[in-house]
Amino acid sequence: MARYLVTGGAGFIGSHLVDHLVEAGHEVVVLDNLSTGARFNLPPQVDLVQGDIAEFENLPALIARVNGCFHLAAIASVQQYQEGWAKAAKVNFYGSVRVLEAAARANVPVVYASSAAIYGNNPLQPLIETTMSRPISGYGVDKLAMEHHAEALKTTIGLRATGLRFFNVYGPRQVPGSPYSGVISIFLNRLAAGQPITVFGDGEQARDFVYVSDVAGALMRAMSWTAAGNCGVFNICRGEAITLNDLIRVLAGVLECAPEIRYEESRAGDIRISLGSSVAAAERLGFTGNVALEEGLRYTADWA
Ligand code: NAD
Ligand code: UD1
User: Fold this and answer.
1) Residue 73 Cα, ligand 1 centroid: separation in angstroms?
2) Which CATH number fits domain 175-207+239-275+291-303: 1.10.10.10, 3.40.50.150, 3.40.5.50, 3.90.25.10?
3) I need a labelling partner for 266 at 20 to 30 A (CA). Which of 47, 58, 152, 174 fits?
4) DSSP string, 148-200
């Protein structure tokens, strides 16, 4: 049994990870400012420290007391940079550097959430970890910066860290009510309520969707790998992309509804096609995205 810190543990992906950790018998402490996360996402025995990763003074002490740190706290929306670029960067860049530095100085292994957004609009698909990264959003830039800081802290202080480049994660507990949330949670929620949905652009943009419990499993595997002295960066995806137009057709089948669709201008910083290869994660971490899209959509629809 070990003791883990999960930053952002009260959020969508973080709370699923917490469930996996608790089920495996580990002790968990969560650091979260509850900006999008919620206490009710967490099992009662989990210790919640309410604080901001960019400001919380006791962060080094908190990290020094654990066997490993999962760093998931972030402003998870690409679009939120359009509303306040520096404000988002303070969390995703500066806050992340604080977490990584504290872990490096305490010699605590870290697994952190990077993103497919680091690749930008690269025509070389499927994207592999060595594909050139050229982010087109502030969000992607800050996730890439986090990877570079982890690498530099490894070289200089000996940080053990692994970054997981999540593609588009979906599943229960993804907040449906916010315009900044993931597209599946927004579409499912609106379609189930008989409301119209908005597609930004022509709907031919494509995403590689991966189910949240598979992602939680990948985080667990990455921690074992990192604690054993390895470091790296891996895509976490299924290796299958679907356009939004096709996604809507699948959702209509799952919900047995006839969607009303409104098309609006595409959003700034939006990637066109995002299709990953998870071969490296399969080989090195033993990761596979087991849950197929339609199956995952059914689980999510049942929860919603
Ligand atoms: P989420 O918004 O549900 O979770 C983020 C959590 O971090 C929330 O609980 C929130 O309250 C907390 N948080 C935000 N700012 C904070 C701060 N300053 N200090 C402390 N806590 C803070 O989003 P999610 O989808 O679960 O994302 C988790 C991580 O995975 C993020 O780092 C995100 O960038 C990354 N990611 C998500 C996806 C996806 O498709 N959902 C894909 C790639 C990467
Ligand atoms: C998502 C994640 C981001 C992650 C990235 C990795 C969220 C909120 N964002 O970004 O954290 O790093 O994947 O690939 O989880 N769209 C509509 N209508 C809507 C909402 C969205 O058409 O109502 C479109 C968007 O313009 C975009 C696509 O759906 O083209 C996906 O959007 P979104 O779910 O916000 O995800 P990403 O921007 O891909």
Assistant:
1) 5
2) 3.90.25.10
3) 174
4) HHHHHHHHHH---EEEEEE-EEE-TT--SS-TTS-HHHHHHHHHHTT--EEEE
